[in-house]
Specification:
It contains 15 helices and 16 strands. Helix 9 packs parallel to helix 10 and helix 13 packs parallel to helix 15. It binds pyridoxal-5'-phosphate. The site of pyridoxal-5'-phosphate (PLP) has 15 residues, from helix 6. Pyridoxal-5'-phosphate binds next to helix 6.
Length: about 450
């Protein structure tokens, strides 16, 4: 087909048809999607999305966990326009650009002390991929570790670190990852201290003690082969909002330091205020060796990511070109100036609007409003940290017996909420609420009320 600039705007029916004909949606069973008439979003304002038929929806998952201040925020829109008047994109390969420098400086200021180097990329997956390769190369170039053949990555069970092959290797969500098994490099998973299902005969307290002890046992046994430990600090997001007990992150930091192993903190989901502090690591006074940032970095406006590193890591990559110590890694759109401008504007708004205070209040509101589900016969657990909520649904609360997977209970709740004008997206049978941090209280209430009603509707049919 040929189009000229005078092509008419396609009709809504045409758009829907083209969507089904041509768009392959991520993480979406396409055969079922084709039956569901999903909204086609045309615009957004504040905390709402509007589809091509003019229906409004509350954005209950902050457009996949990344929107911070709402949609079409005047200050961020303006910062992007101003940058557009200068330049949209220029490379960081061997050159630099104004907004990427300013943002690096700002990130170093606000990040845990000691992370002085910023390596840009475009998504959470690429931020993780860069961190893994940096950790691996670091050992090979380290003066006193030259003979080290460290290539084992230590992870936390149920972790999620993105969808590139490196990110998948260090992840362990059965549904997403098992098919790629033959492609992946070697890792060792520590038991997650946030797991719902406990080993037979263990109380939660026993199990958590066991998880703490396992960190030391595994590092003692395998420390010599470990290139890095990678974890989502405080909350494991994609495996169902698993909240770690206090002290676990700090414990991992102390032991990795003791054994001389770099710690990679993947704050792609928890960063930028999501758990109540700008970075989750702050809550346990932890400075990781590498820090991965993406999702909320640009307030959910543009694809941009950053991997922050300590001077100690960075130093091992210095040397004359012939020494072969360069980090030969990067992407075309690395450090894109429009993304950097959006990120700078967002960081300013977080501070100016005292957003972290709003998060505390919203978190308390979410907890209060959702407490009616505490004794619900199909709710196994309500997990909440800051403005991350996971409500795990089960067929039978007593044995924690799950619903049959083919019932797609979580997905049915999403469809029920959508009929009531709220967009949410589950993780299996865990209902996730992840509103933009700045969402006003009245909308938080609406989000909770609709989620509760959708859960009641769907579980009543059991
Ligand atoms: C979303 C996520 C990623 C992947 O980020 P993308 O931008 O989707 O590639 C990595 N790590 C964590 C913890 C995430 O939540």
């Amino acid at each position: 087909m040929l189009y000229s600039s005078s092509s008419p705007v396609p009709s809504t029916a045409q758009l829907r048809q083209w969507d089904l004909d041509h768009v392959w949606h991520p993480f979406t069973p396409m055969q079922a999607y084709a039956r569901e008439q999903a909204p086609v979003i045309a615009s957004g304002q504040g905390f709402h999305l509007t589809d091509i038929d003019g229906r409004h929806y509350l954005d209950g998952i902050s457009s996949l966990w990344c929107n911070v201040h709402g949609h079409r925020v005047p200050e961020i829109d303006q910062a992007i326009r101003d940058q557009l008047d200068q330049i949209a994109h220029t490379t960081l390969l061997g050159l630099s650009s104004v907004s990427s420098i300013q943002l690096a400086r700002r990130l170093v200021d606000v990040a845990p002390a000691g992370l002085n180097r910023v390596f840009y990329s475009d998504s959470g997956s690429t931020a993780v991929e860069a961190a893994l390769k940096i950790a691996f190369q670091y050992h090979r170039q380290h003066a006193s570790r030259r003979s080290d053949q460290r290539k084992l990555f230590l992870t936390i069970g149920g972790g999620y670190h993105g969808d590139t092959v490196g990110g998948v290797s260090v992840g362990s969500i059965e549904l997403f990852h098992h098919v790629y098994g033959p492609l992946l490099f070697q890792t060792l998973a520590l038991p997650s201290p946030g797991a719902l299902h406990l080993p037979a005969g263990m109380t939660r307290h026993d199990y958590q003690q066991f998880c703490f002890a396992e960190v030391e046992r595994v590092l003692q046994a395998h420390g010599q082969q470990v290139a890095a430990v990678i974890m989502e600090p405080l909350v494991q997001g994609a495996c169902g909002i698993l909240v770690h007990p206090p002290g676990y992150l700090r414990h991992v930091r102390e032991l990795t330091r003791h054994y001389g192993i770099p710690l990679i903190a993947d704050e792609v989901a928890v960063g930028f205020g999501r758990t109540g502090t700008l970075f989750a690591c702050e809550q346990e006074q932890v400075t990781p060796d590498l820090l991965c940032l993406a999702k909320g970095l640009t307030a959910g406006y543009l694809p941009l990511a950053a991997t922050l590193a300590t001077d100690d890591i960075y130093a091992e990559f210095l040397g004359e070109p012939g020494a072969g110590r360069t980090f030969f890694h990067g992407h075309t759109f690395t450090g894109n100036p429009l993304g950097c401008a959006a990120a700078l504007a967002s960081l300013e708004l977080i501070e100016r609007n005292r957003l972290l205070t709003t998060v505390q209040a919203n978190s308390a509101r979410l907890a209060d409003r959702l407490s009616v589900l505490q004794d619900h016969p199909h709710v196994a657990e309500i997990r909440l940290k800051g403005m991350m909520v996971g409500i795990e649904l089960v067929q039978d609360r007593d044995g924690l017996k799950p619903f049959p997977a083919e019932r797609r209970t979580g997905h049915l709740v999403t469809l029920a909420a959508r009929r009531q004008g709220v967009i949410i997206r589950p993780l299996g049978d865990v209902i996730v609420l992840m509103p933009a941090l700045a969402m006003p209280e009245a909308l938080i209430d609406q989000l909770c009320d609709v989620a509760i009603s959708a859960i009641n509707e769907v579980t009543a049919q059991v």
